[in-house]
Specification:
With about 120 residues, the protein is an alpha+beta fold. About 25% of the residues lie in helices and about 30% in strands.
């Protein structure tokens, strides 16, 4: 994974600045603490994050299934090429790799790829 483009204390401000009135945001909580969140637009899954303390417990799968239900015509997302666990997770859930880039267009300047969920017609 490339280094974070924003320091931990700046992530909340960064996320708030990115939210748009058309965004749909879902959170997963455990004992009142947010442990995962999903942010999507009409055609993009922009963020799917699970806290390390809750990784591998099915929270990400629940949120991804929710995205599929909310976007029955499909959606795309970007993932870093070096994030092999995320790529494997998305492949297990039926997403396919559609486009590779050199990363020159993202903040981290790290190679990435577009994956898509394309439900059968």
């Amino acid at each position: 994974m490339p280094p974070a483009a924003h320091p931990p204390d700046g992530v909340r401000a960064w996320l708030a600045a990115r939210l748009d009135s058309d965004d749909e945001v879902w959170v997963a909580e455990d004992a009142g603490d947010v442990v995962a969140y999903l942010r999507m637009t009409a055609t993009w899954l922009d963020d799917l994050y699970v806290a390390p303390s809750h990784a591998g417990q099915g929270v990400g799968s629940v949120l991804l299934d929710l995205a599929k239900a909310r976007r029955p015509d499909g959606f795309s997302l970007w993932v870093f090429e070096s994030n092999t666990p995320a790529r494997a997770f998305y492949r297990r859930h039926g997403l396919v790799e559609r486009e590779h880039t050199d990363g020159s267009e993202n903040e981290e300047r790290a190679p990435d790829l577009r994956m898509a969920w394309e439900p059968a017609a």
